[in-house]
Each structure stands twice: as C-alpha cells, then as structure tokens.
C-alpha cells in the first residue's frame, strides 16, 4: 500500500468514526425534551425587541474596554522595551498582575473596592465607566504583551536606519517602529476583541439595571422568568452574531500577514 493510499484509508476510518459517533448521539438523544427545553419559539419571540438593548450594551462595553486597553496597553508595551529599568520593572509588574488576576475580581475591585477605599469617587459614565476601566485593565495587560511582541518583530535594521538619519529613540519608536508593530499585531488584537465580547458577561457583578445589563444577564433573567432554557440559546446565538465575524476577520488578517 502506497503512502497516499494509507493516508486515504486513515481519513476514511476517521470519517467513519465521526459519523458513527454522531449517529449514536442522535439515536440516544431525547429530541422531544431538547425541543421543549431550548426551542420554544413563543419564549424566544417574547425576548424581542427588549433584548436589543442588552445586545447594544454588550457592544458598547466591549468597545469601551478595548479602547481603554489600547490607550493603556500601548504605553505599557513601550515601557516594557524601554532602556530605562524602572519603566521596565513597572510595566512587567503591571502585566503580571493584571494577566494573573481574574477579570471578575478586577471588575469587583473597580466597582466596590475603589469606592470603599476612596469615598465619594465617581466614575464618568457610571456603570459604563466602571466596565471600561475594569475590563480595560485586564485587556491592557494582554494588549501590551501583543504590542511588545510586535515591536520586537520589527527588523532592527529599520531602527538603525532611522537612528542613522538623526531620529531620536522616542521619535523612532513612534514614527517607525510602532506603526509597523501595530500592523503586525492586528490579528491578536482582533482576538482580544472577541475575548472582551465574551468577558462582558461578567458585568453583572456591578449590579446593573434593566437599561445597563448586558446580553448574558438579560438571558439569565429571562431564563428565570420563563423556567426554560430557550433564552440561553437566543443569547448564545446573539453572541455568535458578534464573535463569529470577528473571528473570521482575525483569520483573514492573519492570512494577509502571512502572505506578506
């Protein structure tokens, strides 16, 4: 048997195993109970149009946290590669702390810990400001590492060429290195946007209202009211409506980067 024939045989066996597993699962599943628990169209219809407020809030929370993460993460990345040791120490500690802490705990600290430590403090935008800072702090640590990797991926010859033209180190980083680094790290930044979309489900810890709740909290409330899992399915589909296009965009950008 030739190597090609062996590969074909191996693929055929794998396909057969997958088909057999799917067939067994389909045969033993209680489709009546599944339909009753997850596919009640009247319950799904009753969620609209109110669910769009939560859907929009999910988008807003994601964008605010991502913008905050970029604004903080890029300077942290520059500090990580700085020749000034205290900057590197601070940036390294920042990244390790906020990558190590769960996003839920950071949100809780921002929403409740800081106001207790500093009575009278007010976040701009209320819950939206708390979410931007809470999720943004965690996001900024991951963004900083992605940007740092992008900076280090820029050929050193470009830095040397810029310095030979009389550019200062700061100007070289801002005008030559950073723009190229950001193009390199577009795919991982897009993946971070997908992660933030899912992490927005943690906003419930801040005690949101009907006007400020996100998609996951809305679906859980509907689940409690209807005693049926259909709202969770609807919520999951709406999350996929956001994350699948972002995932496809990330893969397309990654392929573009590989082609270059």
From TrEMBL:
Bilayer topology term: Multi-pass membrane protein
Annotated transmembrane regions: 12-34, 54-79, 100-118, 232-250
InterPro entries reported in the protein's UniProt record: AA_ABC_transptr_permease_3TM, ArtM/GltK/GlnP/TcyL/YhdX-like, MetI-like, MetI-like_sf
Chain ranges of the ABC transmembrane type-1 domain: 55-250
Alphabetical keyword list: Amino-acid transport, Cell membrane, Membrane, Transmembrane, Transmembrane helix, Transport
Pfam family, one: BPD_transp_1
GO biological process: amino acid transport
Any one Gene Ontology molecular-function term assigned to this protein's record: transmembrane transporter activity
PANTHER family according to UniProt: L-CYSTINE TRANSPORT SYSTEM PERMEASE PROTEIN TCYL, MEMBRANE COMPONENT OF AMINO ACID ABC TRANSPORTER
Full protein name: ABC transporter permease subunit
Cell location: Cell membrane
Membership in a protein family: Belongs to the binding-protein-dependent transport system permease family.
CDD domains, alphabetized: TM_PBP2
Family matches, as NCBIfam families: HEQRo_perm_3TM
Entry's Gene Ontology cellular component terms: ATP-binding cassette (ABC) transporter complex
